[in-house]
Amino acid sequence: MTLFYGTELTSRLMLGTAQYPSPEILSDAVRRAGAGVVTVSLRREAAGSRAGQAFWALIRGLDVPVLPNTAGCHTVREAVTTAQMAREVFGTDWIKLEVIGESDTLQPDMFALVEAARILTEDGFKVFPYMTEDLVGAERLLRAGCEVLMPWGAPIGSGKGLNNLFGLRALRAHFPDVPMVVDAGIGVPSHAAQAMELGYDAVLINTAVAKAGNPAEMARAFAMAVEAGRMAYIADPMEERDMAVPSTPVIGQAVL
Amino acid sequence: MQILVNDERHDVTAANLAALLDELGYDVMARIATAVDGSFVAASRRATHSLHDGARVEILAPMQGG
């Protein structure tokens, strides 16, 4: 059992809610994924616009825990203020903390991330920090009060999968008891299965489902991959070898 | 008094944040969050949060996110 700040999720697949062709397709995808969490965000709304309220009604109807993010924030102050606004709007102290440091890769600014995480945990937030796979940064985030880590697989929206397998393995091995989620960069279900086989506790997917030709079908495919990967991890995979080892017994083999 | 709301200039008479939302036509039941000059202002404190000329107000609502 994996607890995220004391909560056991119904599924290890976390799903983003952005970029779907329509609200109906988003709803279908969340249902078919059996998502354990959906991520949401905040944006400016003009008086008279009902877009935000309609989206909130749709999300509440899905009856899945929400994880608000601070997407688009580039400074500690922006991220902290956005988190405080999200807590009030969504009624949760969970926050997926993003502080972006570089525009081309949307790479997290680990220095600002640690500072924002410290401020928010002191303010009672339960922080899910979107981070690089940096071991030292992970240590600092845990010291800042984070009880969950969310390393990237690859840049957001790139679909490139797990760019640094060695780094993700090392991170998992260094902090075996910390719930960890691979967030960002996953493109196809096999990437998600791979993350779960490494022992990650969950994956967070958005673009790979939303931009699929059939998002709901892809959501189901991801759900199956996450489940398969988790089962494989629990079942303890064999060691990889550089040379062949015959699987058929050679004892008793005829000499012809 | 001139203030910036979501980066748009408005000429308003409202003296506090709650009055501003009303003057601009936001639904009192709308699920929105507010910040003034970069700092969060909780819904419960909007009526007592005075506005000054040139204040930067942000009004945010739920949106899709990844």
Automatic annotation (TrEMBL), chain A:
Subcellular location as annotated: Cytoplasm
Domain (Thiazole synthase ThiG) ranges: 5-249
Function (record text): Catalyzes the rearrangement of 1-deoxy-D-xylulose 5-phosphate (DXP) to produce the thiazole phosphate moiety of thiamine. Sulfur is provided by the thiocarboxylate moiety of the carrier protein ThiS. In vitro, sulfur can be provided by H(2)S.
Protein name (database record): Thiazole synthase
E.C. number: 2.8.1.10
Originating organism: Komagataeibacter intermedius AF2
CDD domains hit by this protein: ThiG
Pathway: Cofactor biosynthesis; thiamine diphosphate biosynthesis
Broad class of the protein's primary localization: cytoplasm
Highest taxon in the source lineage: Bacteria
PANTHER family: THIAZOLE SYNTHASE
Keyword Transferase appears in the UniProt entry: yes
Binding site for 1-deoxy-D-xylulose 5-phosphate: G157, A184, G185, N206, T207
Signal peptide segment: none
Family of the protein in this entry: Belongs to the ThiG family.
Active site: K96 (schiff-base intermediate with dxp)
GO aspect biological process, one term: thiamine diphosphate biosynthetic process
UniProt keyword annotation of Cytoplasm present: yes
Species lineage: Bacteria, Pseudomonadati, Pseudomonadota, Alphaproteobacteria, Acetobacterales
Quaternary structure and interacting proteins, as annotated: Homotetramer. Forms heterodimers with either ThiH or ThiS.
Keywords: Cytoplasm, Schiff base, Thiamine biosynthesis, Transferase
Pfam families in the cross-refs: ThiG (PF05690)
Reactions performed catalytically: [ThiS sulfur-carrier protein]-C-terminal-Gly-aminoethanethioate + 2-iminoacetate + 1-deoxy-D-xylulose 5-phosphate = [ThiS sulfur-carrier protein]-C-terminal Gly-Gly + 2-[(2R,5Z)-2-carboxy-4-methylthiazol-5(2H)-ylidene]ethyl phosphate + 2 H2O + H(+)
One GO term describing the cellular component: cytoplasm
Molecular function terms, GO-annotated: thiazole synthase activity
Entries under InterPro entries matching the protein: Aldolase_TIM (IPR013785), Thiazole_synthase_ThiG (IPR033983), ThiG (IPR008867)
Gene behind the chain: thiG
UniProtKB/TrEMBL annotation, chain B:
Pfam family, one: ThiS
InterPro entries reported in the protein's UniProt record: Beta-grasp_dom_sf, Mopterin_synth/thiamin_S_b, Thi_S, ThiS/MoaD-like
Protein name per its UniProtKB record: Thiamine biosynthesis protein
Gene3D superfamilies: 3.10.20.30
Organism of provenance: Komagataeibacter intermedius AF2
SUPFAM superfamilies cross-referenced by the UniProt entry: MoaD/ThiS (SSF54285)
Signal peptide location: none
